[in-house]
Amino acid sequence: MSNDLAVEVIGLEKSYGKVEVLAGIDLRIPRGTLFALLGPNGAGKSTMVRILATLVSPGGGQARVAGFDVVRERHQVRRNISLTGQYAAVDELHTGAENLSMMGQLSGLSRAQARRRTTELLARSDLTEAGRRRVSTYSGGMRRRLDLAASLVVPRSVMFLDEPTTGLDLPSRQTMWQVIKDLTASGVTVFLTTQYLEEADQLADQICVVNNGRIVAEGTPAELKAGVSGQRLDLEFPDRMAFERATRLLGARLIRSDLSSLTLKVATDGGAAQIRALLDEVDPQRRDVLRFSTHAAALDDVFLALTGHAPELRPDTEPANV
Questions:
Q1: 193 and 247 belong to one structural domain
Q2: Exposed (0-12), middle (13-18) or buried (19+): which is 308, by Cβ within 10 Å?
Q3: Which range marks the domain in which residue 9 is found?
Q4: Predicted confidence band at 319 (pLDDT cuts at 50, 70, 90)?
Q5: Overall pTM > 0.85
Q6: In terms of domains, do 176 and 266 share one?
Q7: Measured distance CA(242)–CA(320) in Å, rounded
Q8: C-beta neighbour count of 310 within 10 angstroms
Q9: Which of 70, 154, 54 has its CA nearest to residue 104?
């Protein structure tokens, strides 16, 4: 494994009975970067995180994290990683400060060291005032920030964040985004799984999209969006008949169709000539298209084009072992 890589995966496989969850995954994640793993529910995201965090054994292939093999050297791996899951794992009967101090002492810090680290992390997570209150009084966003702070009590070189902002409102998610950005800026490698595509777009240096246990695309957010289409033309129709005529005509060129809003989304190069040609093709009589608009391609366009699924912006329903 190269010293420049925080995670290296070669031919990773995992099955549960006859269900193939991971089917030969290869990954190379440089140190100090934020890597986002995207995919529909059941695609194998959580299984991959559990294997890399040494919680589940792979069925085949190899994986190294922080320079150590996840099977033969799992104890060394665990000393170099932290894992924050989809749900906060903090003690509601204790205050925020007590949770962090306890975690520090369990991790080997002296009482004085744990106290100093607690003060630092509460400030970093915008929880200084709340730190004196019991966690049972916290909002969902505050609990998630405290949970993330608990995983930072003893600094690790690689951090796994498995859907850390699930169920949070936008302001709480944005606060978490800043904490995550600060982590990467400090040199920590962050491995993020998320259902929120704008989250990956905002944070990730590199994105990998998985579907049915296989990688279907890799690249920066800009590269993935350019690979589907640099621009998108949205067409709104006055009635279902016009909508269905255009749907048949455009066929595989469609990025997405939405019957409820009578809207079709089509990949374009963004040029005026191609947009005029598309409008003439779809609506030669100038009566079928109610209105149109152009947009830069978004990650949800990429997600749909690559997986055939619309992104599910809700708490994860992926099976526990997938």
A1: no
A2: exposed
A3: 5-219
A4: very low
A5: no
A6: no
A7: 44
A8: 12
A9: 154
